[in-house]
Every structure is written in C-alpha cells, then in structure tokens.
Design brief:
213 residues; alpha+beta; two-stranded antiparallel ribbon
Length: 213
C-alpha cells in the first residue's frame, strides 16, 4: 500500500507547483489525507514488525534532550516549559526508543496547549543487569478521564479528530519488545503522567524486576 501512496503523493506535489486557486487547495487536501494514510500504514507495520537490530548502550538523558529539541523544531512551544532531570544508561535500540519518547512528549505538549509545563524525570533503580529505569512524563494539562485511560493503548483508539490511534499502541509494542511497559496515571498536581519502565538489560523483563524489587 505504501508504494501506490508514494506515487499519489509525488504526483500531487508536482501538480501543486502548477495549480492555483481552488484546485491548489483541493490538491493540498489530497496531500494531507495521503500523508495520514501513509502514517497509518507505517503504524501498522511498526505494530507487526519485530525489533531486529542488536541492542546498544543508550544514554537516556541524552536521548531525552535530543527528543525535546526535535519536538521544539516540530511544534511551536514558546510558552511551554519543559524540564528534564536525572540520567541513566540501558541496552536498547536508540531509534525505536526515540520514537516512543517523541510520541509521549508530543502527547504531553498537545495536552498543555500553548502554555503550561512538562516535567521529564529519569529514575534509575538497581544495578545492571537486574536494575531498571523509569522515564516519568508529567504534564499540566487537563488529565485523562478514567474511561479514556482504559483504552489508551488499544490500536485505533483516539480522542483526536486527526489522530490515527496508533501512536501509543506502537509505543507500547516497542516498550514490550524491550522487556518494558508504559503506564498512564493522574499526576499528583493535576494533569497526566506517563511512566515508561525499561530494564537496563535486554535479557530481563520489567515484570520480573518490579515483582522482585
């Protein structure tokens, strides 16, 4: 499906260069909807494809800082305060983990709107290989209703008019592939809190760590 979508997108962009008036606007709609289709297909592929690359050392603080910068480049966040604290290293797949962090950070930024705050805390527990890390993302947004929270990680569930409902499902699948998980809860001072838990070693699952520790 991705191949014909790519052809449609390419020809649409070529036509946009020559089009004017209502036709140009119609072509922009076609481009936007084609991009949404591609995003859905890529999300489905992410859900079905296992992580194949070899794990490598990942500095979570560095990855969080880089992802925040990417988010600032992608969205207007002048009125949003983002704080990152803590550090820790694990064995994992940097690109996949960056995808998870970007999605969680983006969701937090959408929740707070034009003004607000996002706190990102990295917490280390225990030593490798038995230890694990948590990345806790808390926002000052309106929070998540309990009935919504129960379905957050289901594929195609979304509360956004333009959402695919795959972002959190894919993120949870990536966390599971690393032996970890993502949990959603209410933040202590209001807003939402997402907790990404990951083992320091790829050979350990977080269910074992939190049960034993």
């Amino acid at each position: 499906i991705n191949n014909p979508l790519g052809v449609i997108l390419g020809y649409t962009r070529l036509l946009e260069k020559k089009a004017e008036g209502p036709l140009a606007e119609d072509l922009r709609v076609i481009e936007d909807e084609t991009l949404r289709c591609k995003e859905t297909v890529e999300g489905l592929l992410d859900l079905s494809r296992p992580v194949k690359t070899q794990p490598q050392p990942v500095e979570l603080r560095e990855l969080c800082d880089e992802t925040v910068e990417r988010l600032r480049e992608a969205r207007p966040l002048e009125g949003v305060e983002i704080r990152v604290e803590g550090a820790g290293q694990l064995e994992g797949h940097p690109q996949k983990l960056r995808q998870v962090l970007f999605n969680l950070f983006k969701n937090a930024s959408e929740a707070v709107g034009e003004t607000g705050s996002i706190e990102i805390g990295i917490q280390a527990h225990g030593a490798c290989p038995e230890g694990y890390l948590e990345v806790v993302i808390s926002d000052s947004g309106p929070g998540i209703p309990a009935e919504t929270r129960a379905h957050l990680f289901e594929p195609f569930f979304t509360t956004k008019a333009d959402g695919t409902g795959l972002g959190l499902a894919v993120s949870q699948a990536i966390a599971h592939a690393h032996g970890g998980r993502i949990d959603a809860e209410d933040a202590a001072c209001g807003g939402a809190r997402f907790r990404l838990t990951l083992p320091k070693s790829p050979h350990v699952r977080c269910e074992e760590l939190t049960r034993n520790g």
